[in-house]
Amino acid sequence: MIKLYDYELSGNCYKLRLFMSMLGLEYESVPIDFYPGREHKSDWFLRINPLGQLPVIEDEGLVLRDAQAILVYLAARYDTSRQWYPVDDPRRLGEVSQWLSFADGITATASAARLHDGLFYDRDIEACRTGAHRLFRILDDHLWFGEQEGCDWIVAGDRPTIADIACFPYVILSEEGGISRQDYPAIRRWCDRVKRLPGFIVMSGVFPAGPAKAA
Amino acid sequence: MKTADRAACADPILNEDWHVVADLASVPPGARFATKLLGVPLILDRAPDGTLAIHRRDDGATVVSRERYGFAWACLGEPRRDILDIPEALETDRHLVTGGSVGVAVSGLRTVENFLDMGHFPFVHTGWLGEEPHTEVEPYIVEITEADEVLATECRFFQPVASPNASGGIMVDYIYKVVRPYTVLLYKTNPLETDRKDVIVLFVQPVDEENCVAHPFLCYLRTGMEAATVRWFMQLIFGQDKPILENQYPKRLPLDPRAETPIRADASSVYYRRWLRDRNVTYGAIPARA
Fewest C-beta atoms under 10 Å: which of A211, B193, B214, B263? Predict the structure, then answer.
């Protein structure tokens, strides 16, 4: 069975729990005392991931770190629909990779702001928030133009991709870093659509979609 | 001029009391940590041998400090009483762990009040501390004790996963005790040793009037439980409360009885607010109109 080195309040761990739930995959969660225990910096964990970061998975002898890399692996290995990671469509595949990298930018800004405010990480909070707003503006514009073409997801197509899963957690948790989503209506609608996907689960700080509204 | 006279807070009951200002696990020997208490910016220094010293960042004055229960404590004035005594912390068959200190953008009084509330369990802690249709808060008893604490007893609630070692839903007995304006304890039936209780203490640090840090201290019976699991569960639950707390408006706690409309399930909150009012606690509150 897949083993996930896991921390409840980590958005990057959540995106893997979320995706495995959507794929219907069983896994074993190994809770790491990330805070305040700093177990991810302990000797035993550094042998698993020398970067001292979560998440990490183990599957059939493979040890893989980096949330985005793990999404790629899980989709390519277990998604029989071949929709989440469209390996047969080079243009869309390129776009997915582009937005996976964008998700790392969200981690570096919105997630960093959340760690500063909630867990007292030493960060330049104004730079984190400004950076997050810049990315959210780009994402909101992109989603808005997509909606005009009838597209619900980050990468054009009928079905969501791992780009949606990669970007979702630290967008939906942004207010814990003092980053309001009030000025991003297309992002808010997209978050609601993600919450209505089959297999959607929450983490602490994320709430399920409200009752469906008429459009 | 005494240090307390220069504090932003005008309440002697707070200026002359001890407050947790950091989990020592986050300030290892040799490290510095900046925080605020009652609006006063502080710097914590731990010498390489672990010795703790706390200074004000505005004028450099030394602030009295202690280490206890794994936390750093500070008092801005002359402490009029000692740090809270927790008898369960002396019992050797318990895990004593800091739960992970979390910053919350709301008055610490709001955080204490939310901790006392059972009505939100099915809606905020869905599938853990409550679930629909078990939403009823049965009548319970609230009183002010001779030791001047707010005590709520005979609190009962159905919980699907009351504790990390619970197997299936159980009816849980709770006792709540507010012992200081920013300190609240919860005694909760242990699922395995039903004649004993796990204790969760929430020390709330008033950073300023609209920001606080929740410092949980957990005294859980060891039977069938790992210390890391206790922490995991506490953070799971408190992580669900945090966005709810941060969306409360106003951010300070209104003490005027006319400000909000309570129902019977809010009896502990009504007592808590009245108790704060009678003790002239204003910091983090919107005082009652005369």
Answer: A211
Interface predicted TM-score of the whole assembly (ipTM), two decimals: 0.91
Across chain A, where does the E strand assignment appear? Answer: 2-6, 27-31, 56-59, 62-65
For residue A190, the enclosing domain spans 90-195
- Residue B274 Cα, gap to closest chain A Cα (Å): 30
Distance CA A98, CA A96 (A): 5
A40 and A114 together in one domain: no
Q: Is B113 on the interface with A (CB under 8 A)?
A: no
> Do the Cβ atoms of B237 and A204 come within 8 Å?
yes
Query: What single string gives the DSSP state of each residue in B3-43?
Result: GGGGSS---HHHHTS-EEEEEGGGS-TT-EEEEEETTEEEE
Instruction: Output phi, psi for A205, to 5 deg.
Output: 100, -10
User: What element of type H or E holds B215?
Assistant: strand B211-221
| B187-219 residue pLDDT tens | 998 888 888 999 999 999 999 999 999 999 999
CATH fold, domain B87-286, is Naphthalene 1,2-dioxygenase Alpha Subunit; Chain A, domain 1 (3.90.380)
